[in-house]
């Protein structure tokens, strides 16, 4: 299992053997010229018999097991102790900055209709629904202003105690849990990530929601 | 500033020698004999002359060399250095820097090592700008420029810069974090002389402050405003006013919250732009439905000086033809956020004859790269990023694309290429076709992946690169690599300064070859490779010449690292653990070591131990 920062976990006892074995081999290299390592050959790696070449390194397979789909181990020392899931992603690999990853990922989500940036908006009494991209707006006032423009209605001011009491309309939304909430109660970022759809209710119906 | 400078000891006799010679010259000098000239202290005259001459010396390497000549030169060089570059913010303290260099106008600082970008370093490791900000404000009240890379900058630091540095003109933050829109708001409001505000690949937290509105009213001296990395909505009307009030504005890079319709309005106000980041390059959802589309082609055609184009953050490819009028003049084009196909690229790239820098996503496939190779004969720098950054994802680009580029773009100097498959043959071809390569960074995304055609390791390919590309200074390797690859690098990579290694090598020999063979090595970053304490020892002769060494998930032990720390007192040896793991006795997760004049830093988080 790969820890949060992709660091090697505690080696199991079976690996200590390999580790010590590696040290032994190193001593040999220091004394000799190690011509073998720099020898030019056409053979596949690991096809030579002498020790030190076929002993599998903990994080490497012989060529016959290498497939174009990559390895299933995650590059740290105890892959023999446990069997990580196939194609486990390693932290920080490939070396792409998270900003770039997030940008491309966001695009993919959009294309695949993923995590809910685009939400449906219904208005009580309107014949059909609209769809808006919540990410276009940076705050509640901007969202409400856009909704007012889009549907030619007034929503009025939000207050923590009274909600939108006194307004003609009140904006509500369905969150991840399926509950209908009043728009404005939670921080903006939380709202964007949990909002599944919007419903602009008539003020009279919404009165119940505003009172604590 | 080079830390080397501190090690020089100049004998006082040099100074006397110089003075004596000058005195003799005066005594036997021209017959007319000016009394005032004869009574002036000769060393002072010499120093004044030197000062005037050294003002013209700009290269920091030259300056470092000049400061080593003798104490007089050291002193004068320190007085005349106006641009201070510190490659590792922990190598020297703000106090020491400000004590030596008293007339600095521009400061450039770098903090975290590059692997921190890939989440390999726990957060809050360090590289705080704060002590520097305070020191600068006191020592250099006339400071004009600050350029930071991978540092943590707080809102308070931005306020310090803005409030205490009256003539402050230029702030460039690359890969920085720790600040938000409220810090930006204070900064832009108080910096009345601001010419450059460049936020590049930095993390800016959204405090829901409308910072664009905080620029002062009236005419502005703004020349460059880059905020494409700022992930918050901005006040467009305020931005439009700002652009209209900035006749000197040459560089403008918008974030993805600016729609193409808004881009149009900005472009017609700023046809003098040379660098443009287009923002989303798609229409906004609400506005523009059913409205008349503006004439985007015309807007681009009006920008006759445009040479650098980027952005396209949420591109609707239908709008691409709008940029046709500027293609012929473009020297730099960044499509690395635009998921476009080869077919969509071709009509653009076929017009970009002058292109020198091209960043793109691999969505264009090998076919797209072939189109680039066919037209862009002046290409100097190419970066191909993956749409799907996974080890086992689709591989739309391969050795075919690399081969094509090598054959078409002979003047290539720098390449960064992400792919799923690569052959030695293609890499060897590039080494022969592009002899001017200075930077070669190949990332085969599957770890330990061999040459798919021959089944061989990638040793020979990278070997050819170091052998044939005689100007190579930066190298990043990947794929299946044995110690042989490192032997090649040690033997032939004599100019290599930066080397990046991941999941490579067989044994300690690999690292030894490099540490013993590469005399110019400054920055070495290694992860997940089987190099241990013995290999680390083999670099003792060289570590003071390096900026840093990073080794994570290798075979190092605390004892091995301790040995290095004991042997080299001016080296700071940091052992960094994953924040939520217990201290481990037998393995070092991350080793980060660097030369420093200051010894262990005082702002250590819990998970860092200095040996």
TrEMBL record, chain A:
Its main location: nucleus. It comes from the Eukaryota. Residues 42-88 are annotated as: Disordered. InterPro entries: AUX/IAA_dom, AUX_IAA, PB1-like. Residues 116-203 form the PB1 domain. It holds the Pfam family AUX_IAA. Gene3D superfamilies: Phosphatidylinositol 3-kinase Catalytic Subunit, Chain A, domain 1. It is found in: Nucleus. Keywords: Auxin signaling pathway, Nucleus, Repressor, Transcription, Transcription regulation. Aux/IAA proteins are short-lived transcriptional factors that function as repressors of early auxin response genes at low auxin concentrations. Belongs to the Aux/IAA family. PANTHER family: AUXIN-RESPONSIVE PROTEIN IAA17, AUXIN-RESPONSIVE PROTEIN IAA3. Homodimers and heterodimers. This is Auxin-responsive protein. It comes from Hibiscus sabdariffa (roselle). The lineage of its organism: Eukaryota, Viridiplantae, Streptophyta, Embryophyta, Tracheophyta.
Automatic annotation (TrEMBL), chain B:
CDD domains: F-box_AtTIR1-like. Residues 103-148 form the Transport inhibitor response domain. InterPro entries: COI1_F-box (IPR041567), Leu-rich_rpt_Cys-con_subtyp (IPR006553), LRR_dom_sf (IPR032675), Transp_inhibit (IPR041101). It comes from the Eukaryota. It holds the Pfam family Transp_inhibit. Residues 43-82 form the COI1 F-box domain. This is Transport inhibitor response 1-like protein. It comes from Hibiscus sabdariffa (roselle). The lineage of its organism: Eukaryota, Viridiplantae, Streptophyta, Embryophyta, Tracheophyta.
């Amino acid at each position: 299992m790969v820890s949060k920062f992709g660091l090697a976990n505690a080696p199991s006892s079976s690996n200590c053997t390999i580790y010590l074995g590696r040290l032994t081999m190193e001593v040999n290299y220091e004394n000799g010229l190690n011509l073998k390592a720099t020898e030019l050959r056409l053979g596949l790696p690991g096809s030579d018999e002498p020790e030190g070449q076929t002993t599998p390194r903990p994080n490497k397979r012989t060529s016959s097991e290498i497939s174009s789909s990559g390895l299933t181990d995650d590059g740290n020392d105890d892959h023999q102790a446990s069997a990580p899931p196939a194609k486990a992603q390693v932290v920080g690999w490939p070396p792409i900055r998270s900003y770039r990853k997030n940008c491309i990922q966001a695009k993919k989500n959009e294309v695949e209709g993923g995590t809910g940036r685009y939400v449906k908006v219904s208005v009580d009494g309107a014949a059909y629904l609209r769809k808006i991209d919540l990410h276009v707006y940076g705050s509640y006032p901007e969202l409400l202003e856009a909704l007012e423009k889009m549907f030619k209605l007034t929503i009025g001011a939000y207050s923590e105690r009274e909600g939108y009491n006194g307004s003609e309309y009140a904006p509500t939304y369905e969150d991840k849990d399926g509950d209908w909430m009043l728009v404005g109660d939670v921080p903006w970022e939380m709202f964007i990530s949990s909002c599944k759809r919007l419903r602009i209710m008539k003020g009279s119906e919404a009165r119940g929601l505003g009172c604590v | 500033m080079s830390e080397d400078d501190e090690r020089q000891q100049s004998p006082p006799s040099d100074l006397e020698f110089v003075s004596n010679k000058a005195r003799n010259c005066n005594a036997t000098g021209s017959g007319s004999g000016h009394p005032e000239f004869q009574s002036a202290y000769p060393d002072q005259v010499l120093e004044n002359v030197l000062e005037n001459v050294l003002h013209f010396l700009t290269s920091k390497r030259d300056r470092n060399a000049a400061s080593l000549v003798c104490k007089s030169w050291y002193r004068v060089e320190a007085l005349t250095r106006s641009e201070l570059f510190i490659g590792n913010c922990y190598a020297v303290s703000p106090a020491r820097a400000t004590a030596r260099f008293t007339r600095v106008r521009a400061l450039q600082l770098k903090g975290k090592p590059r692997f921190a970008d890939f989440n390999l370093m726990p957060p809050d490791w360090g590289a705080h700008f704060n002590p520097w900000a305070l020191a600068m404000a006191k020592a250099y009240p006339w400071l004009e420029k600050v350029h930071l890379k991978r540092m943590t900058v707080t809102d308070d630091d931005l306020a310090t810069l803005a409030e205490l540095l009256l003539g402050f003109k230029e702030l460039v933050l690359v890969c920085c974090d720790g600040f938000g829109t409220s810090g930006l708001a204070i900064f832009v409001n108080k910096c009345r002389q601001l010419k450059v505000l460049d936020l590049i690949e930095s993390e800016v937290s959204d405090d829901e402050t409308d910072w664009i509105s905080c620029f002062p009213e009236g005419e502005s001296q703004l020349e460059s405003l880059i905020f494409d990395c700022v992930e918050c909505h901005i006040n467009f009307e305020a931005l439009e006013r700002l652009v209209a009030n900035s006749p000197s504005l040459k560089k403008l890079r918008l974030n993805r919250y600016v729609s193409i319709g808004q881009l149009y309005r900005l472009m017609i106000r700023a046809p003098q732009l040379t660098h443009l980041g287009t923002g989303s390059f798609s229409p906004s959802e609400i506005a523009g439905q059913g409205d008349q589309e503006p004439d985007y082609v015309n807007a681009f055609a009006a920008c006759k000086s445009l040479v650098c184009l980027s952005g396209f953050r949420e591109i609707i490819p239908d709008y691409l033809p709008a940029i046709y009028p500027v293609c012929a003049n473009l020297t730099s084009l960044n499509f690395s956020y635009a998921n476009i196909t080869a077919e969509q690229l071709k009509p653009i790239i076929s017009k970009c004859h002058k292109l020198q820098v091209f960043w793109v996503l691999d969505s264009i496939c090998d076919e797209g790269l072939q189109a680039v190779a066919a037209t862009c004969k002046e290409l100097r720098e190419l970066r191909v990023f993956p749409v799907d950054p996974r080890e086992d994802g689709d591989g739309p680009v391969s050795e075919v694309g690399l081969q094509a580029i090598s054959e078409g773009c002979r003047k290539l100097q720098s390449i960064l290429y992400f792919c799923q498959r690569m052959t030695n043959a293609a890499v060897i071809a590039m080494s022969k076709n592009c002899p001017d390569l200075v930077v070669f960074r190949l990332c085969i995304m599957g770890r330990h992946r061999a040459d798919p055609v021959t089944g061989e390791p990638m040793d020979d390919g990278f070997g050819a690169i170091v052998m044939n590309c005689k100007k190579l200074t930066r190298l990043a390797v990947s794929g299946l690599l044995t110690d042989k690859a490192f032997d090649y690098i040690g033997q032939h990579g004599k100019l290599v300064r930066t080397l990046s290694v991941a999941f490579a090598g067989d044994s300690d020999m690999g690292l030894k070859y490099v540490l013993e063979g590469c005399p110019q090595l400054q920055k070495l970053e290694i992860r997940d490779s089987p190099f241990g304490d013995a290999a680390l020892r083999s670099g003792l002769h060289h570590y003071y010449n390096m900026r840093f060494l990073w080794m994570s998930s290798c075979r190092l032990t605390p004892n091995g690292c301790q040995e290095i720390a004991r042997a080299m007192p001016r080296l700071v040896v940091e052992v960094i653990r994953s924040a939520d793991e217990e201290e481990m006795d037998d393995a070092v997760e991350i080793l980060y070591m660097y030369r420093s004049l200051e010894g262990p830093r005082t702002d250590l988080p819990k998970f860092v131990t200095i040996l």
